[in-house]
Batch of 3 targets.
Target 1
Amino acid sequence: MNKIYNTWIFIISVLTLPFAFAVGLNEVFGIFGLKIHGDQFEYTELVFGIAAGLLFLLGASRSSRKWSGIKIVNQKEKFQFNSKINSERLQRVLLYNSLEVVGFFLIGIVFFVFSKDALFITLIFFIFIADAIANTLRGVVGHKYRVGMTSKAIVAVDREVVAIYFKGLKRISISKGQLFFEYNNNDLVLDFQLNMIPNDQQEEFMRLLRLNVDETKVYFSGFDNS
């Protein structure tokens, strides 16, 4: 989920940066065979406004999903299984979130340096940074990044939000520390990394998984049946 949002944020930024460069330095900007003179272009605010709007919508959607996931998985009384994520995974999440913040900062600064007209885009990236820091502090320091399981689904939240429902499953397999959930419809396959769960709780997690999934309807592959 997070990767998809970041990919689109990157694509929009890359498409908009040359325009910001052309406008800011009064250079000629070429797109689709057209030549646009930065100092003569009448729709500078419109272009930056559209880019800023798209970026904001992507960021808001991503942020809403993350905060909603944290709220849901921390309602511990609703879960049969609920645990903090593994400390090793937590360190990796902290590293990736830090790199994400640095990336947003650099992109925001580049927009501002290229063109003062792109100030709104810079401000949006700074909002991304503030949200990412707040979410990371809430998740890491507040121990809100967690993995939970109910009788109907697995929910895991750190920098990603994962929801795996048991309804419609036809096969669950395990390979190299990953669970793969295959569904009857549309050949859908979801994966879940077991290293999200502390080592001393993985056995309980697997026990509940097999208890909640009807093994007469769902085939288990690669599991120790002893």
Note: The longest strand covers residues 169-175.
Target 2
Amino acid sequence: MDLSPPVVIRKKRHSPLMRWRIERATSRAMAKETAYRREFDAFRQSLQGTLSSTDGSTVLLAACNELYYWEFARTFLRSIEAIGSPERFHLHLCEPSPEALADIEALASSLSTVELTFTYDDGAFAKLPAYPTIYYAAVRFLVAPLILSATRSSVLCLDVDGIARAPVSPAFEAIAGEEDVRLIKRPGEKSVRRVLASALAIRPSEAGIRFADRLGRAIAAILSMHPRYHVDQIAIVRIVEAMEAKGELSTAQMPLSFADHEFGEDSAIWTAKSWQRKNSEAFVHAKGAVNGAFDNS
């Protein structure tokens, strides 16, 4: 069981050469449906576990390694269960221990309002980038097209270090329109920071499915290039902007209440983006309240 703290990436940018390779990869994934299919299929074939196979309400999707499973994922799932509104949740585990697999199986059986499915991998893909955290952050966008294909339901990709404060999928479905993708855009930011990947929803429209497929193939390819910094945000930005420019994709703004770093009382999800926020009094107290209610039940 690996519960070592995450490695801090000191150099928070890609080299000019890697940026050029990422640009080329996203362009090729856009231009040709078979581009990087082999890399993506290698990931798909490595998965174990179960995907939901029925259509219906929005599927919440998150991913984590062993440390984040014990520290955050269980709390997130418990917080959703405590609210009492029916939800569908898929969790992808990165190289889980037998203890984690046994725990999530028991958790899935114990939840009454959350329909929990999970997949897992053996850790091989986490070794492709220079730092495993690069893979941990990006892997949900590899799983998303598989869920879209299996369920033909909307998929809401979320950070796993969250606490639900309100029914999540009803709150999302109340604002959902005909857009293909809903994401947090930050027009005032430069480069990859123009999008915050903490909450991103994809509808099972033709364009939404095409976007998810392109994003998954591009990320699979970029991971094989052994990047030294995060790849999910830059791939999202490049593909969204390219598809929008061609009129192939409609997008809408995701409210920050689905990834609230400031812990507002009216938000759907509190998301602890940094370790400073994870250790903040408000988040620690909320986390303790959720787990305490379950531990004492």
Note: The longest strand covers residues 87-94.
Target 3
Amino acid sequence: MRNNILGGLVIFFVVVTCLLMIDDISSTNEVQTTYKKIEVEQVEKPSELATLDEEQ
């Protein structure tokens, strides 16, 4: 019973993947957006991910 469920799931995901690939290949009339300008902002803020407490 367990092998039947796992096999069914594998077949399901393979079929869904194939359908998505066919849909992606067949939709050639859609235009992909391209970005010409990329802005990068650098923030000078100290990271507070970890604190180190040293006792002497």
Note: The mean pLDDT is 79.
